[in-house]
Specification:
alpha+beta, eight-stranded antiparallel sheet, five-stranded mixed sheet, 15 helices, 22 strands
Length: about 475
């Protein structure tokens, strides 16, 4: 009997088998979840990897029966605790198929768990592409995750990634499946494209694509004064314009990305890009945790070494729009009205100059996006500038950032900012009611679809309560 008890306990500690309506759902205990940056983690009571719609439905049925919270996780790249839970965690990685390709409409329907890194090569085979994918070290993210958090790239003529969604299916807390588009469940559709994981489980997504295209990237040095004084001109010159400002200096790196018919070419150099631009940088930033005064010198040195000359390259769009996020980091990224770009960035610069003990790693990345009508999109009803700040964590070591973070948030709020949903922030419901004209409409819909709060966690409770 003792042996039986021991075996039974071991079985329960490794996985739970739920048998309902003839379908077996396996859940695992003891799984430790951490995001990519290793800044947040959790220990869900049960961890599920469903392979079908029915298996998702049965996990939700068990959650209702046991009164458990449920959170869906994708690639785990969000630099916040938006995916964390001590209840049930559903990982959608085994629901990652392409279900349909409509070449005439240039639309593709995929299961919600497909990674962008896997989707783009499949689109290549059909001569299609996403018009403005958000890639980089974050390409190992699911389609449902990137739309749900309002992920974006750059280009004032292009919206955030969620604007490319033309339809989706959503399973609500009671197990019902809603087909959502502009013509079906339109109110849910306008909310669910940036869903925060709180409306239900996204099952499938239909994306509007474009014919496959190539881009040429041209990057060159400039100054902060030049780019801000001529911002409208830069936005008109390049379809996918962005720039990088190197704090504690006037240095700027301008990046143009535009359609081309040129053959693929590369400006990469392993020694400079990785031996210097990754490994040496990480080491020097680690040293600067003991000598913070080095940060300004590091920013200027790496601009001079790696970014102070013109570079050109060309390739398929998703390969050009891919960029390296380097090593682990803390990130904030707020969207402000596009016309406030100059004022906000100059105020951030002035704050750093007035407080020499506050240090800021490079780069401050400045990108742009077209306004939209998605209820919780940071670009809701306005063209926006995203101002992304970074503090790296060399070798996983935390760096002092609180003063920088609070000053940045104060400036962003002053200029009407809205935080990126995937990033850490200190906002509450009161803030969001001011920031988002449609916030209460979203809340009413969320409460209707999930009256018991099954899909909430501590992050979302701060948003909605």
């Amino acid at each position: 009997m003792a042996l039986f008890d021991l075996l039974w306990e071991r079985f329960k500690s490794s996985r739970l088998t739920l048998l309902m309506t003839g379908i077996m759902v396996h859940g695992y205990k003891g799984v430790q979840f951490q995001n990519w940056a290793k800044t947040y983690g959790c220990s869900p009571e049960m961890y599920y990897q469903p392979t079908s719609v029915e298996e998702v439905r049965e996990v939700l049925a068990l959650a209702r029966q046991q009164n458990k919270k449920v959170k869906v996780v994708g690639g785990g790249h969000s630099p916040s605790d938006i995916a964390c839970t001590d209840g049930f965690m559903i990982h959608m990685g085994k629901m990652n198929r392409i279900l349909q390709v409509d070449k005439e409409k240039k639309q593709v329907t995929v299961e919600a768990g497909i990674l962008l890194a896997d989707l783009h090569p499949q689109l290549d085979k059909h001569g299609l592409a996403m018009s403005n994918p958000s890639l980089g070290a974050v390409s190992e993210v699911t389609v449902a995750g990137v739309i749900g958090t309002g992920t974006h790239n750059t280009g004032i003529k292009h919206g955030i990634l969620a604007t490319q969604v033309v339809a989706l299916t959503l399973m609500t807390a009671d197990g019902a499946v809603l087909e959502c588009s502009e013509s079906s469940n339109a109110d849910v559709f306008q909310a669910a494209r940036v869903h925060l994981g709180c409306l239900g489980v996204i099952l499938t997504v239909t994306l509007q694509c474009v014919p496959q295209f190539h881009l040429q990237e041209t990057s060159f040095p400039s100054t902060l004064k030049e780019v801000l004084d001529n911002l409208d001109s830069h936005l008109k010159k390049s379809e996918y314009f962005r720039f990088l400002w190197f704090p504690h200096s006037e240095n700027v790196r301008i990046i143009y990305q535009d359609h081309t018919s040129k053959a693929p070419s590369s400006a990469s150099n392993w020694f400079l890009d990785y031996a210097i631009g990754f490994y040496l940088l990480e080491f020097l930033l680690w040293i600067s945790t003991y000598l913070p005064g080095l940060v300004g010198w590091i920013n200027r040195f790496f601009f001079w070494l790696l970014f102070n000359s013109k570079k050109e390259s060309s390739n398929l769009s998703h390969k050009i729009l891919t960029y390296e996020c380097l090593f682990k980091q803390h990130v904030q990224d707020w969207a402000i009205p596009r016309e406030k770009t100059k004022e906000a960035l100059l105020e951030l610069k002035a704050m750093l100059e007035a407080h020499p003990k506050v240090v800021a790693h490079f780069p401050v990345e400045v990108r742009f996006a077209r306004g939209d009508e998605i209820l919780l999109s940071p670009c809701f009803q306005r063209d926006s500038c995203y101002m992304n700040i970074i503090m790296y964590r060399p070798y996983g070591k935390d760096v002092p950032r609180l003063d920088y973070w609070l000053a940045y948030e104060t400036i962003m709020k002053k200029f009407g900012g809205r935080p990126h949903w995937a990033k850490a922030h200190n906002c509450t419901r009161k803030d969001f009611e001011t920031m988002y004209p449609a916030f209460r409409k979203f809340c009413d819909l969320r409460e209707k679809l999930d009256p018991s709060g099954m899909f909430l966690n501590s992050y979302l409770e701060k948003v909605f309560y």
